Amino acid sequence: MNRKTARPSPKTARTRAETRRTAAAPPFEIDARALPPLGMAPVDFLRDYWQKRPLLIRNAFPDFVSPIQPEDLAGLACEELALSRIVSHDRAGDRWQLRSGPFREDEFPGMPHQDWTLLVQDVDKWDADVASLLDHFDFLPRWRIDDIMVSFAAPGGSVGAHVDQYDVFLLQAQGHRRWQIDASAALGRGEPPLDFRNDTELKLLREFSPTHDWVLGPGDMLYLPPGVPHHGVAEDACLTFSVGMRAPSAAELLGDFVDTLAADADESQRYRDPDLAPPADPAEIDTAAMNRAVEALNMLRMNDPERLGDWFGRFITLYRSAGEVMAGGPEYSRIEVEWDLEQGAVLDRHPWSRMAWRRARRGARLYVNGQAHALSSRDAARIANQRSLDGQDYRALSQAGRDCVFELFRAGHYQLRVDDEDGGNGASYLPSDGPSGDGPAGGSAT
Questions:
Q1: Fewer CB within 10 A of the end CB, N or C, for the chain?
Q2: Which of 396-405's residues contact partners 24+ apart within 8 Å by CB, and which partners?
Q3: Which distant-in-sequence residues (6+ apart) come within 8 Å of 334 by Cβ?
């Protein structure tokens, strides 16, 4: 007797295929206590998760103690130069309200006991202990990191279900926050809906269907690639640190590059047609005319790797919303600075000074807040990578490197710290301590 082999239904086949994918895929949750902060080698994280897959990292920072308190954050939100916001939610009518700082000190005692969130950008620029957390993210290019935003949420506080277009690490610092995410894309279930509500100025998702639901405690961290819908709600009064990446859009890159090319263009380089012949149709833009237009654009050297690299180095070291770093405090001669360095003083980089470097056709280029400095690759790498320079570091530089450091010092990018002055890793960069005209940058918005 012949027996026919039963075929599974399409629905059953899809379920089995999804099960196989899930079994072979990296997990969505890991405990990192044995290997903080990622629970794995950085190369494995970058291969399996970076811009591919969300990951909840339990105990990313075991026994974590927040370097700042809610009252510190509230105080910072009252400063004129700090970029701060308060988001409130009226659950009864599902209405959202956004207010921007600076706020008055007397506002916070009268705030409701629930359903609001205070967010302050660039706290790493104001507090050195917060900034030191970035050392744990040295598996990423430093110029890719935008800022550490800190949020305080009263119980029930949230900024709504939304999506970010950049990578973000969400570190729970105090209290507990419930995070829901929609990882449909990583699960192979298609792209989630990303339409926004039209009844609020916040970019909140109209639809949100979570695939995962977690409660994070102090030291837990959630990594989210760009485009993953998420929603965080405070279970109790809590602090959350958001380490956001700099991810300029293609339009932003193109706009700035074209503006740079236009600003540097030689007015004598123009559209030319010395080979012009009588046209068959005077109203037609023919192929020859288009070829001449392309030749005129090529005069701008848009494809020159050196010019492109120089533009990008300047662009990526500019903070999006920061004021210029300006010289301030007592004036020192070079002899005085070098003497103090020999006696144990240290040059601390200003917290709003953003540096990167790249190799060039000849030597290297150091980029500091949009300005380029020609140096050797050895000098450029040393200056860009060290937030502080002591006497030994300074002596290790070439003459050109030392000249560059002193030039940056005079411009305000370094502050001289001697033994009898406050400073060090625990120093707090408050507005009154910084040069006039400085301001925090814009950054992550989660």
A1: N
A2: 400/374, 400/375, 400/376, 401/375, 401/376, 404/366, 404/373, 404/375, 404/379, 405/347
A3: 406
- Report the candidate in 224, 262, 194, 221 with the shortest Cα–Cα distance to residue 58: 221
Q: Are strands 371-375 and 364-368 parallel, antiparallel or unpaired?
A: antiparallel
DSSP state, residue 205 = B
Given a cut of 50, whether residue 264 has pLDDT beyond it is yes
- DSSP type of residue 293: H
Residues 21-32: what's their mean pLDDT?
85
Give 378's pLDDT tier (boundaries 50, 70, 90): very high
Between the CA atoms of 67, 71, 76 and 77, what dihedral angle is there, to the nearest 10 degrees?
A: 130
pLDDT mean across residues, the chain: 89
| Axis-axis angle for helices 250-264, 305-316 (nearest 10) | 120
Residues in the chain: 446
Per the CB < 8 A criterion, the answer to whether 441 and 121 are in contact is: yes
In the chain, the N- to C-terminal Cα span, in Å, equals 65
Residues 208 and 230: their CA atoms lie apart, in Å, by 8
pTM: 0.86
Q: How far apart are alpha carbons 432 and 28 in whole angstroms? A: 44
pLDDT value of position 300: 82
Confidence of residue 437 (pLDDT cuts 50, 70, 90): very low
Q: SS3 for 404?
A: helix
According to DSSP, the β-strands at 55-58 and 29-31 are parallel
Look at residue 196 and give its three-state secondary structure: strand
Q: How confident is the model at residue 150 (pLDDT cuts 50, 70, 90)?
A: very high
8 Å CB contact between 419 and 344 = yes
Asked whether the CA dihedral 119, 213, 200, 323 is positive or negative, the reply is positive
What sign does the CA torsion over 214, 108, 78, 416 have?
A: negative
Query: Do the bridges between strand 84-90 and strand 95-100 make them parallel or antiparallel, or are there none, so unpaired?
Result: antiparallel
Mean pLDDT along residues 167-171:
98
Q: How far is CA 61 from CA 39, 131, 220, 270, 387, in A?
A: 10, 15, 7, 59, 23
Are the C-beta atoms of residues 334 and 402 closer than 8 Å to each other? Answer: no
Task: Tell me the three state secondary structure of residue 333.
Answer: coil
Q: State how far Cα 436 lies from the chain centre.
A: 24
